[in-house]
Design brief:
- By secondary structure, this protein is mainly α.
- The chain has one domain (11-49, 59-82).
- Helix content is 64%, strand content 0%.
- The protein contains three helices and no strands.
- It has helices at residues 11-26, 31-46, 59-82.
- It is elongated and about 65 Å long.
- The relative contact order is 0.10.
Length: 88
């Protein structure tokens, strides 16, 4: 796929870029610059072209992450209480 090829984008993303491009052109930006800005905006908002696999974490993975975080926080609290305070 050559650079600048838009075939990997969904039809929704292409429509979105076209609408954004029209808005820039109405403001007086050149056609070429408007197209670049529109695709940069779509990439920033959507993360690029069509994704093949979802990167969402499962519910069980999120739960174990919370448990680990909670245990770290409680161990820090215990460490703070037992450590002597230094005076200035």
């Amino acid at each position: 796929m050559p650079r600048g090829d838009k075939s990997s984008y969904s039809s929704r993303q292409k429509r979105k870029a076209a609408h954004i491009e029209e808005g820039y052109e109405r403001r007086g930006v050149s056609k070429k610059t408007a197209a670049k800005r529109a695709w940069a905006t779509v990439n920033k908002q959507e993360g690029g072209g069509v994704k093949k696999k979802s990167t969402k974490k499962s519910a069980s993975t999120r739960k174990t992450g919370r448990k680990k975080t909670a245990s770290k926080k409680s161990s820090r609290k215990i460490a703070r209480k037992s450590a002597p305070r230094s005076r200035r």
